[in-house]
Amino acid sequence: MRGTVKLAFHVAGRRVGRGAWARTGGSGFDLSILGGVNETYSAMSSDNAIYQWIHTVDYEDFDVKVIAASHERPMLVDLWAEWCSPCIVIAPVLERVIAGYGGSLHLAKVEVDAGHNMKLAGHYRVRGFPTILLFEEGEERGRFHGAHPAPFVRTFLSNHSRMLPQ
After folding, report:
1. Which residue from 4, 20, 95, 110 has the fewest beta carbons nearer than 10 Å?
2. What is the C-alpha to C-alpha distance for residues 75 and 106, in angstroms, rounded to an integer?
3. Is residue 18 over pLDDT 80?
4. Which of 16, 77, 81, 84 is catalytic?
């Protein structure tokens, strides 16, 4: 089947953006986000679905789902907003990076405009979105801001993680 469709992005069952276009055909689809990022993706089977490693986290459960969990494995936290274009761009990049670690790294998605989540942004002195934080052993190990390609994210993890295999 070939054609063009308008997409909405969903991560862990929550809509994270809209306004992307995909052209189907061949073994996957070509994706264009905000007119600037073009990549080809293949459909993911349920056998290798990464969504078990991606969690929607709120202010109320942050201590359990991120801080406590970071004693078992590194937790990458994406502080994002639906209105934030770079947040939409980096979402699939983070998914690909998480998939590459095969479960040894998890991603916590925190939508700052939902509920009391802006308190987390204030607590961690976040000045812009997206802000990506790395937690290990209950502590922040590093952070970066903005949308970056997968090699940048992998280098960031290599430079800041003590728990991930090098």
Report:
1. 4
2. 5
3. no
4. 84
